[in-house]
Amino acid sequence: MEKRIAKALLDIGAVFFRPDEPFTWASGIKSPVYCDNRLILSSPEARDLVEKAIADTIARDYKDCEMLMGTSTAGIPHAAIAAHHLGLPMGYVRSGAKDHGRQNQIEGRMAPGTKVVVVEDLISTGGSVIEVVRVLKEAGAEVLGIVSIFTYGMQKGLNALTAEGVRNVSLTCFDVIAEVAAETGYIKAEDVQRLKKFRDNPSDESWIQR
Question: Of 75, 117, 127, 182, which sits with the fewest C-beta atoms within 10 Å of its C-beta?
Answer without folding.
Answer: 127
